[in-house]
Amino acid sequence: MATRMLLLSDTHLPARAKALQQQVWALVDAVDVVVHAGDWVDVATLDALSARAARLVGVAGNNDGPELWARLGEVARVEVEGVRFAVIHETGASAGRERRMDERFGPGSDAPADVLVFGHSHIPWDSTAPSGLRLLNPGSPTDRRRQPVGTVMTLTVDDGAVRDVALVETPR
């Protein structure tokens, strides 16, 4: 059976927006797993997503305080339909990212992943390292920075494969 997922990062609530858009909440309601790659900023967002999402996986980011770090930590791992996901907030500069993340999360690492979800830059990213590790950054639904509009990602995991990765615009 296919598992639908929503990838979020860098919500920065209530600093960059007062609330998540209704469109984002509708996506939360429609999926089986929500992944948040850090920079929640407030605990209330974690609590709200925890209460509403069927399943929530998340990490803390550089703008998150001690309570979020205590509850979430730096790295999260989850297996969905045979696909191993790792989640982290920061991956460093875009130059050399695939190589660095391959060393940390790829097949030769202590705990290899098939997909790495990350945030921090607010810039959507979808690439594959030489080992096959897929790197996904959903951008930010609330703080678009230099992007034309805020974004999140959706995908489906089915029969051990990631399918239908889509960047979803989240205008405010």
TrEMBL record:
Cofactor(s) of this protein: a divalent metal cation
Swiss-Prot/TrEMBL keywords: Metal-binding
Domain Calcineurin-like phosphoesterase: 5-159
Transmembrane annotation, as ranges: none
Entry-linked InterPro entries: Calcineurin-like_PHP_lpxH, Metallo-depent_PP-like, Phosphodiesterase_MJ0936/Vps29
Enzyme Commission (EC) number: 3.1.4.-
Enzyme class, broadest EC rank: hydrolase
Any one GO molecular-function label of the UniProt entry: metal ion binding
UniProt similarity note: Belongs to the metallophosphoesterase superfamily. YfcE family.
Record protein name field: Phosphoesterase
Source organism (scientific name): Agrococcus jejuensis
Taxonomic placement: Bacteria, Bacillati, Actinomycetota, Actinomycetes, Micrococcales
